[in-house]
Amino acid sequence: MQKIKLAVLYGGKSTEHEVSIHSAETVGALLSPEVYEVYPVYITRGGAWLLQEKCGLSDPKGAELFPVFHGGHQFTTAAGKKIALDAAFPLVHGTLGEDGTLQGLLEQLDLAFVGCGVTASAIGMDKEIAKRLAALEGLPVLEHVALEKGEKYDAGSLKAKIAEFGYPVFVKPVTLGSSVGVTRVDAPEKLVEAIDYAFKFDTRVMIEKGVDHAREIVCGVLGAGAGTRASVCGEVRPKHEFYDYNAKYIDPDGMSLVVPAGIKPGVSEAMRAGSVSLFRAMRGSGLARVDFLLDHAGDNFYFCEINTIPGFTSHSLYPRLWQATGLEPAKVVDELVRLALAAKKARRELLLKPEHAVC
User: Which helix (H) or strand (E) holds 107?
Assistant: First the structure.
């Protein structure tokens, strides 16, 4: 059997650079050498693409790759070596990796790739747009206010509006992941400081009503179109104030995951169905993790966000959710690559139909 030539892309310019490296290390270890010919590609903080010997390495001396937009290969090195690939596995979290920009480049390279395309990636990265679409799909969402950098706002009026929500509230960058720049605010005197902090990471900031004593529930999505399915739900129990960046990636004992989550069957099924519905509505493909907040009584839940390139480290939520559903991480990775190749084949067949020829 001919091996699948697969580039694993990781690193990138975003604040989630280190997380991406760890995700690549985990995925690389799951890729069978009998099935895949792996090309680990580290993207530096400056944007250079460097070929590595192993997934998760970030050696700045790696051979630099340059994209080729025509011909039988996708990359060439400075030494003139041509590299032809079957697919790419993007693991670049956050800005310029998860927001549709990298996906657009891979489309231009005529390369199959794991995960969501441009549209779904852009929607998933924008928390406010994702909330609006979730609401249209019938998912409950929390009230929020959005601000743009440079926009003048009256602090007094804003605090009055937020007071209508009731504290706590969460102040977060609109287009970042991994809880970067997120602050829980319990009193009005801390609000402006939290807004200023979030603006260090993004040009748009969202202030969202919190749920007191909320339980954090997560659900994995896998597939495409009518074949999309949801994992069992899991409950994240952070040992910090909330499930922030430190709890996710710095503190090895920062959280525990209870899976399946101990929640009412009707609530669990509604979350799972809503996750699939939203994923399909945003034209998702491959994978995503959908996050919810559940009130303390366990009756009312709210959509929080959808992550189209969820963390894939050894302790990340997504692979553990599917493992609890009965699908081992290596099988998840294999299915994601198969989905990518099938999507590319379907697009190519559509374009090659004679009736679609343009004279």
Answer: helix 101-108
| Section 188-192 average pLDDT | 94
How far is 167 from 186, CA to CA, in rounded Å? 5
The mean-pLDDT minimum among 57-71, 234-248, 250-264, 328-342 falls in: 234-248
Instruction: Pick left, alpha or beta for residue 326 (phi over 0 → left; psi -120 to 50 → alpha; otherwise beta).
Output: left
Range 215-236 burial, b when 16+ CB lie within 10 A, else e: bbbbbbbbbbeeebebbbbbbb
Every domain of the chain and the residues it spans: 4-114, 133-138+213-327, 143-209
CA distance 206 to 49: 33
Positions annotated as catalytic residues are 16, 178, 249, 289, 291, 305, 307, 311
Classify domain 4-114 by CATH number: 3.40.50.20
Domains 133-138+213-327 and 143-209 belong to one CATH topology? no
In the chain, the percentage of residues whose pLDDT exceeds 70 is 93
Domain 143-209: homologous superfamily in CATH = ATP-grasp fold, A domain (3.30.1490.20)
Instruction: List Cα–Cα distances, 91 to 22, 83, 231, in angstroms.
Output: 10, 20, 20
Superfamily of domain 133-138+213-327, CATH level 4: ATP-grasp fold, B domain (3.30.470.20)
Residue 243, pLDDT score = 47
pLDDT tens profile 222-235: 999 999 999 999 99
